Amino acid sequence: MTTTIKNELAQPYPLTAAQIAFFRENGYIKLRHVLSPDTIRYMDETITREVHRLNTQHLPMDQRDTYGKAFLQIMNIWVYSLPAREIVFSESLARIAAELLEVSGVRLYHDQALYKEPGGGQTPWHADQYYWPLATDRTVTVWIPLQETPLPMGPLEFSAGSNHLSTGRDLKIGDESQEVLHRALRDEGYTHVVEPFSLGDVSYHNGWLYHRAGANHTDQMRKVMTMIYMDKDMVLKAPENPNQVNDWNTWCPGAKVGEVIQTARNPILFEKE
Asked: Can you provide one Gene Ontology molecular function annotated for this UniProt record (predicted)?
């Protein structure tokens, strides 16, 4: 990593009060030109190299279920690669998360690369926090496309304000969540927002915000890196489903129910002085 890129990943991105208020109301925000083309290119080279090395999904597309068709998913890359760690630990991106959540600091929950192959299917409607044994909604994911992402490539689609909807919070991602949430979000009148991402644009969305992505109708891989942040004072709750038990053991090993999650796998990435 060059000094220029390292400095960029550390310097503050100026959020406005209006942007913070927009996130508070809608549960998501798309930010323009957060990262330079050079930094995106470096992230692409670094993360893509690790995705190819760590990927274990080799089934043909027609033999996968809906979830398997949606993307290649590689998690906690920072554990396996120092260059990836420098990206995941970006103070700039973590500071944005803390300011949007309106908390004094954030920890890493985990990272994940989401690569939607050419011909890859839709990502069904879902809320990420169904999987997380976390006591509050002070969670946010940054979604970083590693290329320009036009509509045919399958950028994220947000259901604005749907993080306040309790319907469907017991559904894991899949065909059922797509059917139930499509109907519920339509009936409740939530506005859906989907836009192309230019190079360097990123988005942040709350853990309970319902979102989806379309299929990749291009001949190019849709490459995305994400980091999930939580309030630095986040407490582990008693798991409510088997997926939360798995997440506890995988992403927060050693954490105790009712106590702040402060394991070696969950370092503080930004804290206000």
From this structure: 2-oxoglutarate-dependent dioxygenase activity
What is the domain-level CATH number for residue 51? 2.60.120.620
The structure's pTM equals: 0.93
Domain hosting 239: range is: 3-271
d(CA 105, CA 178): 33
Contact 69, 248 (CB under 8 A): no
Number of domains in the chain: 1
pLDDT tens sequence across 8-66: 999 999 999 999 999 999 999 999 999 999 999 999 999 999 999 987 666 565 655 66
